[in-house]
Amino acid sequence: MKAAQDIILTPVITERSVDDMAESKYTFKVAKDANKVEIAKAAEELFQVQVLKVNTVNCTGHTKLYCNEHKPLHPDRPSASKRGYGSKWRRLSKQYLRKHPMCVKCMAEGRFVPATVVDHIIPHRGDEKLMWNQDNWQALCKPCHDRKTWTEDKNPVYTY
C-alpha cells in the first residue's frame, strides 16, 4: 500500500478552491493511479478528518490554438530550456541578482527598485559567447526588462 504522502501530492490553490474551503471542500493534486478509496484514506490519515465524499477529475494540459488571423502573432518558439535558459541559467542568474540587487535602469532615474530579471544588454540570439558573458548581463526589474525586450523584438538588429 502507498504512503498517504505518495497519494496526496499538493494542494490546489485557485479562487474556486479557496471559495470551496468555506464549505469544507478541499482540492488536491493526487497520484494518477490513486482511486477514490485510497484518496479518502490518505486524507483521513494526513489531516485527521472524516472524508464524506471524493470527486476526481483528470486534467490535461492546454494547447495553444489560435485562429488564422492571430496565428502569425504567436510563432512557434522553442522552450526557454531549449533556448539556453535551463538550470545553469537559473543558478547563475540568481547568483548575479544577489550581487546586483537593484534595477540599473530605475537607479539611473533615481529610483530604487529591486531587480528580478537578468537581461542580456546585447541580445544573444543563440550566440553562446554573448549568452554566458556576464559583462553582457544587467539586473532589471520586470517592467524595465519587458519594455526593453519589446523594443528589441519589435526592431531586431541583425549583424552579418
Would you count the extended β strands for me?
4
Shape: elongated
Q: Structural class per helix/strand content?
A: alpha+beta
Biggest sheet: strand arrangement: 1-2
Question: Cα-atom Rg, whole angstroms?
Answer: 23 Å
Percent strand: 5-15%
Low-confidence stretches: none
Number of helices: 7
Largest sheet report:
2 strands, antiparallel
Helical proportion? 25-40%
Mind explaining what this structure looks like?
There is one protein chain. The chain starts with a helix and ends in a 6-residue tail after the last helix. The longest helix is centred in the middle third of the chain and has 13 residues, at 87-99. The strands form two sheets. It has a two-stranded antiparallel sheet with strand order 1-2. A two-stranded antiparallel sheet has the order 3-4. With 160 residues, it is α+β, with helices and mostly antiparallel strands. It is 37% helix and 9% strand. The model has no long low-confidence stretch (mean pLDDT 87). The protein has helices spanning 4-7, 15-21, 36-47, 87-99, 104-108, 128-132, 142-154; strands at residues 8-11, 28-30, 117-120, 137-140.
